[in-house]
Amino acid sequence: MELLHSSCNFETLTLISPPLQSCKFGSNSLLFFSPRRVTLFSGYNHSGRVAVSASSQHGDSNSSSSSSSQTNHASLAQESIAGFLRLEIGISEVDSDFISSNCPKYTRMIVDGVRDLEEWNSWKGSKESEGIEGLGFKEKVIYMVKQKGDGGKVAFLESLGLSLSSAMYLAHYVSSESLPILLHKVKYLKEIFFSGSDENGLVGKYARRMMLYLSIPIDEDVQQTLSFFEKIEARRGGLDMLGSVDASFRFLIESFPRLLLLSEENDMKPMVEFLESIGIPKGCSGKVLLLYPPIMLSKTDEIKRRVAAALEKVQISVVNKDSGKLLQKYPWILSPSIQENYSHIVSFFNSESVLKMDIDHGIRRWPLLLGCSASNMEMMVKEFDKLGVRDKRMGKVIPKMPQLLLCKPQDFLKVVCFLEDLGFQKEIVGQILCRCPEIFGCSIDNTLQNKLRFLTRFGVSSTHFPRIIKKYPEFLTYDADKTLLPRLKYLMETGISERELAFMIRKFSPLLGYSMDKVLRPKLEFLLNSMEKPVREVIEYPRYFSYSLEKRIKPRFWVLKGRNIECTLQEMLGKNDEEFAADFLGLGELRTHHETS
């Protein structure tokens, strides 16, 4: 450090530190530090002692350049950087212009370096400065860029959205790669990781769900993936932006910088081809890789082994189309810690006398189970047990609604209390759980209560709710406006009043589950047009819609018509074959044309 000026009475003391020489970019690289002026101001405090204050200036102590001058320098620097990238590094004009226009902090660092260099040379002559004294501003910019020794990689990485510090660290990490090769790899990585549309943010929803239900000790690969998700979640838009290349690519390469060292031909392409070979569509492979980037960092043979092991556990063939679906839903199944947890889950349910095939079926439907600890699932199993659902009966619940094992007990108990408030005993609630476990994953206010209000609109009294639910609990899971309403409106269009419709629902609630096009319309049209019976017949006997049109209704009607026998729908359809034959044909057995052919 050298003394520039000092007054004899020590009013001011101005010091300036020389710049440190930059070294070439490598493992022991040093940054180019600009000189700093420090001016000390003396004075006296109340006690009469000397007090010293300091102010620090960057560059010229008199004044900084005007904003217009700075803008001009920045523009000239961008042109110089673009020219360097194009002429010295060999990348295209389009790419060089994009990079130079999107690395403002790198550009400012270069401009500051040029200004400091000029200032240093202005008061201290040296042999080193002789070669650059006659250079113009743009030439000095190129000189400073070369002095950095990173071959333009810092500018390129900042143009991808990285901070300057991250770009400098990553440039050091990939110092063995030339910028043209790095540029090509980045384009290919963007192509494979962000292939396909993600307008609805589905990738982010899967990621958030995977994080939510993870409750086991995890390995390093899953931990890195979680850190990657957390970086994106902390930004505007959160994980909904995971599928956006502009929002998440920079975090991807920050979290997994080794991606930039992979060979396109030997590493990336073989992995993408393998994923397609096991049933993952080309446009979906990127979603799998975003949800679990360590797949791309593994050798293809290793991933093949993990895929085979995972699919064998849950009884899926590698060539089965379901293998691709499973990986799309839950690519973490390839994690060693997740695969290890499978054995703990199987062991736990074996102790509860649940068949392995039921467990595997539940995992295939909801693979997020694999990230949940057996101790967490045990809490829900205890709640099932209180309702009498245990052992093999639990095997009816898990394949249908494996998500229930991941529920919070308090949420599950809310639905139990809802049903008990309607008048059901615990044993009946257990029966409903076995028949339609989906109900216990529904919102009480938005789904269950909404269906009861819907029935009330059609004149069904709340006193009939228990009977209706017990006979057909599935209707509670239907969409009232899109599913139930069109069916009931169709029946009303045929001349059935709301009051009569309420009677039909009370008498035979499975009526709510029949498709309008596949069941209600064809059977009602046959009743009215072929059988020539009035619509009141189905009002009195709504169970008519439960019988097969081709195998029961038509054969029996044509037999009775051929014998000129008139009877009600219940008399015609409510008897089994032997009873029907004995009552109407005088035979011991009814043999239809289909049975005797």
UniProtKB/TrEMBL annotation:
Coiled coil: none annotated. Residues 53-72 have a biased composition (Low complexity). Residues 52-72 are annotated as: Disordered. InterPro entries: MTERF (IPR003690), MTERF_sf (IPR038538). It comes from the Eukaryota. Keywords: Transcription, Transcription regulation, Transcription termination, Transit peptide. SMART domains: Mterf. Belongs to the mTERF family. This is Transcription termination factor MTERF2, chloroplastic-like.
